[in-house]
């Protein structure tokens, strides 16, 4: 458009009217566009020749919200006239890219926003002139595996687990795991070390010690992760429970998209990562209840996203078949959004919308918690970055 306008001014107006001001101005506009195009094309060729055979430089450990330098470099063209360069990840999406100078090169620093597993990396390089008149973009692809894990929640989030104490709560139907404080008549097969020999010497009755029936500490043995919009903080909380052994040593962990429950920490973490590709939240929750002994489901945790959806009704149906309602753990990020500005201030002052996206998502959590509790579920809301129980 600038070149066309320059041609019209130079040859359509300036030359016919012998205007010695408009004619050179039009020629300068055409020359500026031509020079910018040549510089951009040459700069794009220089960058392409530099990066086409370079390795992908993907870090082995990637976590959401954590900035990581990849070690990938490409020319910054700082000494080239009129041009500048930038790069972005076309695939996978959800990666923020910042550039840091290193001499005449740019070095790449990435911050993943979404967990997932990918097999191909596509970087889009863009060379543009400083006036924004023209730009040249091209893609370079690498077939390299990429594994992005959710950032682990703060360690204080372990307070969300409800641990019962054995000595303080005696129950007649509890398991016999308490101290040896009760007695009964000797039976065939009882260990001889539990026999009360002093009592036998006085009364000639053979009695043995037996433990009291009490509710002993019992960690959660079954957990399930629901994948859906706003689930990244909950995934980080689930990772904390796994790595801190808060689910016990003999646990079952399921996630959306997984074929079978996991019994070890590494497999469970892989299921959390792979759940990002699931499109039907809580679809596998029904199979979990059918394939696991109901006795184990008496102690169950469900990690749920912070955004309401059809998964809430599925949790309610799942909980109706359990001997005890599960604990629903919701992970959240962000800060509480500020109070809305007056209308006159919004009209006169342009700026960022009230609260960020995470803050707006956090604003809907109280209503979600009330809805879950109205269905008879126990709910814990955990702030991932601080570990605070909200």
Describe this structure in words.
Residues 160-178 have low confidence and may be disordered. It is elongated, with a radius of gyration of 32 Å. The chain has helices spanning 2-14, 22-51, 197-203, 232-243, 265-274, 285-291, 311-320, 343-348, 357-363, 365-374, and strands spanning 62-63, 68-75, 83-91, 95-102, 105-112, 116-118, 121-129, 135-142, 146-149, 176-185, 207-213, 222-225, 252-255, 300-304, 327-332, 378-383. It has three domains: 2-149, no CATH class; 155-163 and 219-383; 164-218, no CATH class. Helix content is 29%, strand content 26%. Helix 7 links the parallel strand 14 (300-304) and strand 15. The strands form five sheets. It has a five-stranded parallel beta sheet with strand order 13-12-14-15-16, with helices on both faces. Strands 1-9-6 form a three-stranded mixed beta sheet. Strands 2-5-4 form a three-stranded antiparallel beta sheet. By secondary structure, it is an alpha/beta fold.
List strands and helices in order, with pairings.
Layout: H1 2-14, H2 22-51, E1 62-63, E2 68-75, E3 83-91, E4 95-102, E5 105-112, E6 116-118, E7 121-129, E8 135-142, E9 146-149, E10 176-185, H3 197-203, E11 207-213, E12 222-225, H4 232-243, E13 252-255, H5 265-274, H6 285-291, E14 300-304, H7 311-320, E15 327-332, H8 343-348, H9 357-363, H10 365-374, E16 378-383
Parallel strand pairs: 1-9, 12-13, 12-14, 14-15, 15-16
Antiparallel strand pairs: 2-5, 3-7, 4-5, 6-9, 7-8, 10-11
Helix pairs in contact: 1-2, 4-5
